Amino acid sequence: MKLSIMTTALTLAVVSTSLYAQQYIPKVGEVFSYKDISQDIYVEKAENKKNDPANGIFEAMREKRKVDVANPNAPQSFSGTDLVQPEFNSSTSPWQPLEAVFSSDWDAIKAVSATELRQLRAAVKVKTVLDHPDFKIVELALAPGALLPRFSDAAPGSFHVLEGAVEVTVDDDTIAGYTGTSVKLESLSQRRIKVLSDKPAKILWFRWAPEGDQTYLNYGYYLTGCNFHAQPLEAVMPANFEQWDESERQRFTPLQHSSVTEPAKDSFYGHQVQQLAAMKGKADSVLSRYPLTPLFSNEKDVQWLDFTKIDPKSFFWAKDAAKGGDLLAAWDKIVRMKGIFQATVPEQLYDFNMSYIANGPKGKYVTHSHATPEFYYILGGETEWLLNGETYTAVAGNVYFHSPYWDHEMLGLKEGTPKVAITGSWSPHGDRSVFETPMVFTEALTTQASSAVFSDGFNFHDFKLKPGLTFDSKEQVVMTN
């Protein structure tokens, strides 16, 4: 059996409103509106479990979760400094000084490039929006025409372009990158960004501690709520959904390598070049941890996932979710997801993984949890987020941190507006010393273009998403043989 969308009259009897008022639980394939049900049907309690056609699947996951949490040899819950706050409100937090994110010898830089440093501060905005001992998310904004000079960082990472056109150079390769472009940043690689567009560039910069504990990945995914099959008509996502306004999306294009004027050997920046060479000499074995990961990639080249044909190795939750069988058709109704970047570790899994995800308006992702730590960076929509017993309202710019085994669930709040986000996971307890190594600038700070300033009304979080969804009142979701 499978779910399909039909533009015909209802082929199933419509249950009366009076029954819904009694917290009626819709049958598999039944057509209904979110206005006709109670959110109480998704709560894990005896009555709901009794009437949930997939309860046997969920009950097995509930029991496995209890066993795994009690097992001292299983991946453990976070504690101490690993247990950071679950919500970060980037849209209400101020931009930070450059030195708060780029740990470098700023006193020396100011001494030799005072004017250029002042211009760089006006041309670049930075902010760490998730700060975990293992993992950082940085918002990076560059004004039109701005140049972020060549620098190197011991932490591996990835740039992901959210808006604007940029020239990105990594070591000896240069591309023109656009909305949806991802860039791999190996440890101690040299990176340089120049804005090509007449509007600011918006970039997410992910940094992580490498060589983490791989046992957390794929260890356990637990869907423990009830009645996940009961998704309203308004939550159905169109087959041709795309999250970005099409005018913002282009595939990256290779460019002729952007050459850099090498600093004089006896200058401050020349000494920075020598310092980087010394660091590379000591770390030669870790300069290419992710040889299987492309240097540049683009989300346009990745198709949305078909959950009914999911590869158990593709996502950390896939192996357990695949046990849901026909229930996966509910995911296909209300979720669009695609993996867009993975720092793959040869002969293992990954140090970092990132995906696009969109959940249908008014759709309910019932209570679930997993051993793998996870984040969501919200790009759009408005969602009620229940996380570890607390309730949050997720809007663009908010970041949610899911510690191992923490229960979480989501509910779309606005009709016609899906939740759109970047979500990802990482292997925890990696080599955190990479965050203690100062970054080095191997290109002298330069005079910025006159255009490289931000307007007073600059808003990092007004992302250019595709307009809200609309639904034909005749469109129905029914069960077919």
Structure description:
The structure is a single chain. This protein is of the alpha+beta class and 481 residues long. The chain has 2 domains: 40-81 and 216-240 and 296-429, Jelly Rolls (Sandwich); 90-212 and 248-284 and 430-441, Sandwich (Jelly Rolls), CATH 2.60.120. 15% of the residues lie in helices and 30% in strands. The chain is built from 9 helices and 25 strands. A 6-stranded antiparallel beta sheet has the order 2-21-18-23-16-15. A 6-stranded antiparallel beta sheet has the order 3-4-11-6-9-14. A hairpin with a 2-residue loop joins strand 7 and strand 8. The radius of gyration is 24 Å and the shape is globular.
Topology:
Elements: E1 2-6, H1 17-21, H2 46-51, H3 55-70, E2 87-89, H4 98-101, H5 106-112, H6 114-123, E3 124-132, E4 135-142, E5 147-152, E6 157-163, E7 166-170, E8 173-177, E9 181-185, E10 190-195, E11 201-208, E12 221-223, E13 253-255, H7 268-282, E14 296-298, H8 318-321, H9 328-334, E15 335-344, E16 350-359, E17 364-370, E18 374-380, E19 383-387, E20 390-394, E21 398-402, E22 408-412, E23 419-426, E24 440-441, E25 476-480
Antiparallel strand pairs: 1-25, 2-21, 3-4, 4-11, 5-10, 5-24, 6-9, 6-11, 7-8, 7-10, 8-13, 9-14, 12-17, 15-16, 16-23, 17-22, 18-21, 18-23, 19-20, 19-22
